Amino acid sequence: MPVLVMKFGGTSVANLDRIRRVAKRIGVEVAKGYDVIVIVSAMSGRTNELVGWVNEIAPLYDAREYDSVVSSGENVTAGLMALTLQQMDVPARSWQGWQVPLRTNSAHSAARIEEIPTDNINAKFAEGMRVAVVAGFQGVSPEGRITTLGRGGSDTTAVAFAAAFEAERCDIYTDVDGVYTTDPRIASKARKMDRIAFEEMLELSSLGAKVLQTRSVELAMRYNVKLRVLSSFEEPSDDAGTLVCAEEEIMESNVVSGIAYSRDEAKMTLISVADRPGIAAAIFGPLSEAGVNVDMIVQNISEDGRTDMTFSCPTEQVKRAEKALQDAAERGEINYHDLVADTDVAKVSAVGIGMRSQSGVAAQMFRTLRDEGVNIKVISTSEIKISVLIDRKYMELAVHALHDAFGLDKAA
Amino acid sequence: MPVLVMKFGGTSVANLDRIRRVAKRIGVEVAKGYDVIVIVSAMSGRTNELVGWVNEIAPLYDAREYDSVVSSGENVTAGLMALTLQQMDVPARSWQGWQVPLRTNSAHSAARIEEIPTDNINAKFAEGMRVAVVAGFQGVSPEGRITTLGRGGSDTTAVAFAAAFEAERCDIYTDVDGVYTTDPRIASKARKMDRIAFEEMLELSSLGAKVLQTRSVELAMRYNVKLRVLSSFEEPSDDAGTLVCAEEEIMESNVVSGIAYSRDEAKMTLISVADRPGIAAAIFGPLSEAGVNVDMIVQNISEDGRTDMTFSCPTEQVKRAEKALQDAAERGEINYHDLVADTDVAKVSAVGIGMRSQSGVAAQMFRTLRDEGVNIKVISTSEIKISVLIDRKYMELAVHALHDAFGLDKAA
Q1: pLDDT at B278 (0 to 100)
Q2: Binding residues for substrate, per the UniProt record (chains A, B) (predicted)?
Q3: Are B257 and B351 in contact (CB under 8 A)?
Q4: Which fold has domain B3-175?
């Protein structure tokens, strides 16, 4: 029988009523003839509670114990979901990560999936079981300890199962009904997309759209897993939600597909750095070693052999970045006058695979922001996206203006 | 290094403050030079919440899923305890049941322990780890599924580890400071015992004293594990609590060591049963098959070939007993006029290994109850205990009177 993977997030399984509702949804797919693999998150709030306890006990915790504690919420949901399905006469059982076993490396709290053997679950499908309920977010290390895949890791679990079992599709049920051209809470004209290319989804995810974990999109792209994002709170139909798929499966598309934003970016400026060959390596090497995710970089024009260097990184990494640069200065590797962190900024991005073949997108973006009086602090581009760092107070204005300018309220 | 097993119940680890307090207690034993195996329960209330959810979803639940769900609470405590110990610079790590692995049979929700390999944990002790924190109450079946040992099963986990690791002692920390001659909530003159024999503790546990799970005492007796029951809420000393040990290690003892009671017993009477050879087997066979735990049995004098048969069983099994007997009657295996259940009764028992060598204990018990005007409905005896079923309203009175009559307020 064809296999379907369905993933339900924390709000979709927040209590027993919602678990029953989700179970009915699963029953519909079983009735259509699918063998179903269900990936569940912890009931909403549970993981935060567990994480809170761990942080209260040990701010610098042993990640192996952290993983063992925080993975427990998913086990509860998996068992309750299997029981609910059985109660509806749907043959089901639960699997914890180590029972599959979903093998990962030993990078606790951010583990990478290495292997998902299919024999255990397929043997049960062959015996007549119709639904395998798998606890998301967790796996087991070569040392036999529980690992977790990072926050939002259940999305990645779902895609990995879809790839391993060659599923027809991987449906990600969440609390929004699909992927929008921008955040509907900011722009009421935001429009749900029927389809979006993997590459675009990947950019949108990493730029702040919180619909899917970035790694899950990477994985779906690599294994060509058809991903569908849809709401667990609406009556489902066959064309519900947004299909994330290969570019070739999208007939027409706008040049720009979506506008993303992030408030979690900070602008850091190193003032008066000695400008010499290798200075960029001397600055960004230590930052990389300290685990700082530098996004945008701008080097000012040099004057008298000195220059200002500006970069952006997640707000939560500002302290770490400051320490890494101070340490580098103490070791004599770099030399600067001052380091200024500005956290009152936001990043706004336009994303679209159409940019590859159409020029003038950047120019239109800059013109639109200029017309609104928004000053651009830093710019970065990739093949299919343009991002700008602006004052945070202009963020909503910029999102509105760009959404209109690129005609995103109208279907392609 | 000598091994000590310490077990902490749900109220002892109810929140992070209590977990810290318990961790300090563990640190004291580590400082004395012990390698410590700590068995933890779920934080109090957690297991009941999980059990409640399972029952709400599926009153006739799949015990394999039940076990998978309800075992999660212990995993959380184990991880939090390991983190707390690490924070105090005590080298520690947690183990879930399947990681040890604590192997059980496949009797889900009431599994029996089959094997506890010591190599994994001993290897870590050899590397310098000082505390192994083990999630209590759980194990893994031959099929690789999670099993649980029944309510109170963490006591049994603790004793099994003490046996497997040949521990010097197994300390059971709970919310009472030892084993009493009777329940101090009923008789203020109740006295804490310094020592009690395994056989006596076994009778007291199975007769309703809720200090230790009965199976844990059986196991301690079989492997001669020294068990100590003590409070986690008091400053510990070397002679704190009550030591449960072999009879030979107790110098002097009262003839009767303790008075136990249970309100959870019902009296069932089959009225006018045909009295023929094999009738007892015809009645108690079906009850046994239905899982009814029959305790006391009385057969009245036969008249005109018919008799009344009275027995007691746990109150919660009354419905099951009625159904088993009705089914047997429908199959024509037995024939009775009526079946009357009386749940307004209580069982009061006197226990003591001294009874073996001293006669007249039963007579003194009956005389004491007669003097108080308490009517005895059913009697049962074993080598070291006498139990009577009486009207529930006389229960406290009977406990008081017997406690006085056997001089239990005075040390032996």
Answers
A1: 85
A2: 47, 74
A3: yes
A4: Carbamate kinase (3.40.1160)
Is A83 close to B99, i.e. CB distance below 8 A? no
Q: Does B56 touch chain A (CB under 8 A)?
A: yes
What residues form DSSP beta bridges with B94? B133
Q: Is A15 at the interface with chain B, CB within 8 A?
A: no
Out of A56, A79, A86, whose CB is closest to B16? Answer: A56
- Going from N- to C-terminal start, the domains of chain B cover 3-175
Q: φ, ψ for residue B82 (rounded to 5)? A: -60, -45
Q: How far apart are the first and last CA of chain A?
A: 36
Average pLDDT of chain A is 92
What are B109's two structure tokens? 């929700």
Is the CB of A99 inside 8 Å of chain B's CB atoms?
yes
Cα separation, B312 vs B348, in Å, equals: 13
Task: Quote the CA–CA distance of B209 and B202 in Å, as a whole number.
Answer: 10
Residue A394 clears pLDDT 70, i.e. is over it: yes
Establish if A69 touches chain B: CB-CB under 8 angstroms. Answer: yes
Query: CB–CB of A97/A161 below 8 Å?
Result: no
Q: Is B348 on the interface with A (CB under 8 A)?
A: no
- Return the sign of the alpha-carbon dihedral for residues A169, A173, A174, A177: positive
Per-residue pLDDT tens digits for B299-347: 887 788 888 999 999 998 999 999 999 999 999 999 999 999 999 999 9
Residues of A in contact with B144 (CB under 8 A): 99
List chain B residues with CB under 8 Å of A96.
Answer: 68, 146
For residue B249, the cross-strand partners are none
Tokens of A282: 């001397």
Is A16 in Cβ contact with B53 (below 8 Å)? yes
Q: How far is CA A8 from CA A12, A18, A77, A164, A176, in A?
A: 6, 11, 10, 19, 12
ipTM > 0.85 (yes/no):
no
pTM of the model: 0.83
Hey, which bits of B14-88 come out as E strands? 35-40
Q: Which residues of A touch B13 (CB under 8 A)?
A: none
Establish how many alpha carbons lie within 13 A of residue A328's alpha carbon, considering only the half-sphere containing its beta carbon. 25
A40, A49, A69: best to mutate for the B interface, most B CBs within 10 A: A69
